[in-house]
Amino acid sequence: MPGKRKRPYSDIDFTLKRVFKKPGFRPLQREVVTATLEGEDVFLQAATSFGKSLCYQLPAVVDFGMTIVVSPLLALMNNQVAALRNARIRVETINSTTTPSERTRILADLQCGHPLTRLLYVTPEFCQGDNFRRILRIIHSQKELARIAVDEAHCVSEWGHDFRPSFQQLSFFKTEFPDVPIICLTATATARVREDIIQTLALDTSKLKMFRMTTSRPNLHYEVRFKSDDEDHYPNFLAWLKAAHARRAANPERASQLASQNQRADNVPGIIYTLFRKDCESLAARLRSDGIGAKPYHAGLPHSDRADALSGWVANKPGYDIVVATTAFGMGIDKENVRFVVHWQLPKSFEGFYQEAGRAGRDGKASVCILYYGREDRDRASKMMSRDQVRQYKGKEAPVPAMQEQMKHRAKSLLALTEYCEATNKCRHKIIADYFADEEVPTCHFACDWCKDAVGLVKRKEKGLASEEWCSTQREQGRYDVDEYE
Ligand SMILES: Nc1ncnc2c1ncn2[C@@H]1O[C@H](COP(=O)(O)OP(=O)(O)OP(=O)(O)O)[C@@H](O)[C@H]1O
């Protein structure tokens, strides 16, 4: 029910245990849940795998009325809907995969004004539809519109790394329903992105409850491996993976522990991110020819192939050990035992890197995040950026200031990521915390290549990278012109 509510919710602990099967709240979750239930507008920024979804899912179950969840990705929605249905929560989603008969059934439930649906997951594009807005007015008039959750809220911002234009229309919620609380959630927002989200959603800063947690993920072991165009880095990765397999096989105690958790000892689940669709397919095929179960995942594949790759991988099925993906597979993917995330090339942005690496170790256990960095890739990435800039400005008399700003932000983010890769004088956890302007200094117990062996890191860098002189000649000769990303 919209409006501020100042009574304690004694049943949140009960619901946490009984419905969500969690032993207790993680730090700050209770505060966020309570603020949401009290009708406050909330902004939550917290590390990947913090448990942000629970902060709107639990209120949706405890409270009256319906919660609308605006979410940018199909895979993310379907993943969460399946988990909530498992917990016997009435949840629905309307997206491009919803059949017409399903859609009719869901809308009929909403039209009555007193929906049985507790959570409704929709895309920002769907929120723009007149019919949906009309239905929302009916639900609101019956005091059944409980709250709006905007997940992956950085997509709202033009300066966020996954900007989606239709997110910009979401101010509709606050202007039409000022008494309905909004909660926005993200793992990756710089100060500027935060401001932009708040402004775009028409939130009032003086009333907004802001929760900012550290972005630090101490169980992730960050490592940069150096490469150059001259050398194929596949053998390096395969050797690392085979060594990890051998370690598992040599530990029968671990094998029986994994078996008891419905996991397998003869694989190590992971994700490899690449920028190009063609690499997804060829790399997955190459791994399969070496006896590793790997599946490609990118937006160009049929929906059924993507769904099969995702469900097989989540279920630890043989043949589905590694997903080789573009960024189409990222935000919100929640599989607890991902033991490694590898970036096959330099990603497009610092935020994207952090978000994707954050798919690893969601069970809190040690996991590895390897980024293969080459200076040629850096030069290709900046070439791509300049080309995008030219395209954006095409046909315009003068560059639009907002576009210029956006480009500046993109360049800054890429530069920060390059500096992360080139750095040999600082803990990688610290570099990440600095980028997001964390107030806390992160702890790193030998959980990055610099803290483990700074001298070795310098040597590997000297040996592995093409020289700047070489790269500069290549640049002059236009060698770094590339295909489209994805
Ligand atoms: N209090 C809790 N106790 C135990 N597990 C929890 C708790 N809260 C959430 N989790 C689990 O933590 C995992 C991560 O939660 P969730 O997917 O909401 O993360 P997130 O913060 O949205 O991360 P990301 O930004 O990376 O998507 C889920 O498997 C969820 O079930």
TrEMBL record:
Descriptive protein name: ATP-dependent DNA helicase
UniProt superkingdom: Eukaryota
Subcellular location: Nucleus
Gene3D superfamilies: P-loop containing nucleotide triphosphate hydrolases
NCBIfam families: recQ_fam
Cellular component, GO annotation: chromosome; cytoplasm; nucleus
PROSITE patterns: HELICASE_ATP_BIND_1, HELICASE_CTER
GO MF entry, a single one: four-way junction helicase activity
GO biological process, one term: double-strand break repair via homologous recombination
Residue stretches making up the Helicase ATP-binding domain: 33-207
Entry similarity comment: Belongs to the helicase family. RecQ subfamily.
